[in-house]
Input
Amino acid sequence: MTATSLRTEFETDGFVVLEDVGAGEALDRLKRAAAHLEDMARDQTHSTDDFILEAAGPGGWVAWQRGDSGIPGLLRSVSNAHVHEPDLLRVAEDIQLADRHVRPVVGGSEVSIINVFLWAKPAKVGSEKPWHQDMAFAPPGFTDNHRNVVTVWCALDPATPENGCLEFVPGSHTLGVFPHVGSEERTGDQPRVEQAEEPHVPLDQVLPDSKPVPVPLRPGSAVMFDGMILHRSATNTATTPRRAISFVFAVGRDQG
Ligand SMILES: O=C(O)CCC(=O)C(=O)O
Output
């Protein structure tokens, strides 16, 4: 696919698949990094601000917010993964993620990585990440200097509808930010939230006619998506994990 057709698809749908962008040696390194992060959580019983454990029942996010224990050593996600495992940034450099893939599609603006996540979604117990728009969680002042975020989400395992691949509502990035219901995420130095509910957009109420699209991926392929698009991942009902590394880019306001 040419850069122009990728860009047209991205502008129309709000997401585009990048086949094999992190394949080969890059995939080996991403998997090693994920294994290292999993190892770091091996003795953990409660979530910390960066290392969120999975939990049965209402899931890892709710358990974290309540201050409840999770499933020992079993990760749901890691935020700031590049701080804990710096090779992730070197992989992004080596495969020229910003220069070859993100900037040509988002229109030549300044782009820079602001966060990297491991999304672990373990077999059988991996909980849903409900419908949301990433820009709904932008920190105060973010839009003074940036117009959006764009994420490149790279599969480490086959991502399928059964194990919770990403799903998108095509075109929803053009509809503005929807109100998200649920509780605001607390950090560890704030009081526990007893009635925690992961912030989400009730899709069947706000867009009852929408037709979400699942995006299965093979390991090493990625989906790049707009920070305004509605997306989610379902619970993992399969016997295999669905791990992914996502690189979150801030998109500057400077150019079109
Ligand atoms: O991988 C997942 O389960 C959720 C990822 C996601 O929502 C995101 O990258 O914004």
The chain has a mean pLDDT of 96. The pocket of 2-oxoglutaric acid is lined by residues 119, 121, 129, 134, 151, 153, 231, 233, 244, 246 (CB under 6 Å).
